Amino acid sequence: MPADADAPRGAPPDLSLPALREQLWDELVAAVGQHGHPWRTPVLATVCLAADGAVAADARTVVLREVDAPAQELVFFTDARSPKAAQLAAHPHATMVYWSPALAWQLRLAVRLTLEREGLAVSTRWARLKMSPAADDYLSPLPPGTPVAHPAPERGTRAHFAVVTARVERMDWLALAATGHRRAAFDADGARWLQP
Question: How far apart are CA 122 and CA 120, in angstroms?
Answer without folding.
Answer: 5
